[in-house]
Design a protein that fits this description.
With 386 residues, this protein is α/β, with parallel strands linked by helices. It folds into 2 domains: 185 residues, Rossmann fold (3-Layer(aba) Sandwich); 176 residues, NAD(P)-binding Rossmann-like Domain (Rossmann fold, 3-Layer(aba) Sandwich), CATH 3.40.50. It is 31% helix and 15% strand. The strands form 2 sheets. A 7-stranded mixed sheet has the order 2-1-3-4-5-13-14. It is globular, with a radius of gyration of 21 Å. The two termini are 36 Å apart. Bound molecules: NADPH dihydro-nicotinamide-adenine-dinucleotide phosphate. Homodimer. This is Formate dehydrogenase. Keywords: Cytoplasm, NAD, Oxidoreductase.
Length: 386
């Protein structure tokens, strides 16, 4: 019997289950690169479209785990030495956590988790786990690649348009009873003809480029590895061998790299000074990719015309985090990858990985981040240990 410790975000303050706005979610048959969607052998413990990402939703895992004699502990109490997470970690075999409400598996915590064999991310982005420490302790780290990549790509497109067209302040004028056209449009532009660039063109980055192509923008990217010539030609992409070269010519910059030591703080004062004055920056990747205070200063000085994203450091962000109140921003709590549609996919993927783990079957390589003492699968392609 194994102990599975699952850390999820709290239930809605309005109660669980929520009153759903719709009766179903579309069924996605395959991902854009042909990768199959999660395919667990056991029945799902939920109906797609239901809220499973919060504590009472339990990712729908209880029926499967209890049927097989495993113990499931679910909590949102994750921070501080006396948290439920810390108390149960000491004898947990499996930890499941979500990037939206990350249970930070630091090297110190990993050292105390003597039985831990699997750290599973319900979603994408396993930077809340100290990957080096996990590798050293023989812990497998896995996530559900692609499960919410399109969810995030859609969110990025929404934020690009919101910032460039000045949607959020204009909406506020309407809510407040105003009709201030001049105020609404004094910072409102068309996206058409602008230069848009993404730093990292992985699953999300490419999906964003594809979605923006019909807007007749000029598309740029920087990635560690260059994309296939056919993809560059299809999307009319300009490749840059450094982020600096790209940000100099872009009106809108999207940040989409995973967070690991080499990318932490990559958008700092120096990098921001290379941006075109009045550029917009979107970040749905990770908050710690940016220097928090440099972003605030760039918005205050007008070097950035806008910043939007849903990722912060740490999470949840403290109430006095300056990104909550900085000017010209469209921040939300970390939500883009946890739509009800995305939850159905990453919960099914979590079940698939658990089945593989308990039945001794290999986990799909595309789900692996760390395995066998080193980066593996997608982890070996997209992350670094330094
Ligand atoms: P992928 O693994 O598909 O893509 C990551 C890309 O980053 C790869 O193309 C990789 O390039 C590139 N990359 C890595 N390091 C660098 C670097 N130093 N400079 C430039 N490019 C680099 O991941 P996804 O696109 O699915 O997700 C990306 C990130 O988005 C996740 O790691 C996560 O942090 C975040 N995310 C956020 C969500 C949210 O809810 N806000 C949900 C899902 C993900 P190469 O192939 O050349 O190594």
């Amino acid at each position: 019997m194994a102990k599975v410790l699952c850390v999820l975000y709290p239930d809605p303050v309005t109660g669980y289950p929520p009153k759903y706005a719709r009766d179903d979610v579309p069924k996605i048959e395959a991902y854009p690169n042909g990768q199959t969607v999660p395919s667990p052998q056991s029945p799902l413990g939920f109906k797609p479209g239901e809220m499973v990402g919060c504590v009472s939703g339990e990712l729908g895992l209880r029926p499967y785990l209890e049927q097989h004699g495993h113990e499931l502990v679910v909590t949102s109490d994750k921070d501080g030495a006396d948290s439920m997470f810390d108390r149960h970690l000491v004898d947990a075999d499996v930890v499941i956590s979500q990037p939206f409400w990350p249970a930070y598996l630091t090297a110190e915590r990993i050292a105390r988790a003597k039985k831990l064999k699997l750290a599973l991310t319900a979603g994408i982005g396993s930077d809340h786990v100290d990957l080096k420490a996990a590798a050293e302790h023989g812990i497998t780290v896995a996530e559900e690649t692609y499960s919410n990549s399109i969810s995030v790509a859609e969110h990025v497109v929404m934020m690009v348009l919101s910032l460039v067209r000045n949607y959020l302040p204009a909406h506020q004028y309407a809510v407040n009873g105003g009709w201030n056209i001049a105020d609404c449009v004094s910072r409102s532009y068309d996206l058409e003809g602008m230069h848009f660039g993404t730093i990292a063109a992985g699953r999300i980055g490419i999906a964003v480029l594809r979605r923006l192509k019909p807007f007749d923008v000029k598309l740029h990217y920087h990635n560690r590895h260059r994309l296939a010539p056919e993809v560059e030609a299809e999307l009319g992409l300009t490749y840059h061998d450094s982020p600096q070269s790209m940000v100099k010519v872009c009106d809108v910059v999207n940040l989409q790299t995973p967070l690991y030591p080499a990318t932490q703080g990559m958008i700092d004062e120096k990098m921001l000074s290379q941006f075109k004055r009045g550029a917009y920056l979107i970040n749905t990747a990770r908050g710690a990719l940016c220097d928090r205070d440099a972003i605030v200063r760039a918005l205050q000085s007008g070097q950035l015309a806008g910043y939007a994203g849903d990722v912060w450091a740490p999470q949840p962000a403290p109430v006095d985090h300056p990104w909550r109140t900085m000017p010209r921003q469209g921040m939300t709590p970390h939500m883009s990858g946890s739509s009800l549609s995305a939850q159905a996919r990453y919960a099914a993927g979590t079940l698939e990985i658990l089945e593989c783990f308990f039945e001794g079957r290999p986990i799909r390589p595309e789900y692996l981040i760390v395995d066998g003492g080193n980066l593996a699968g997608t982890g070996a392609k997209s992350y670094g240990l330094s």
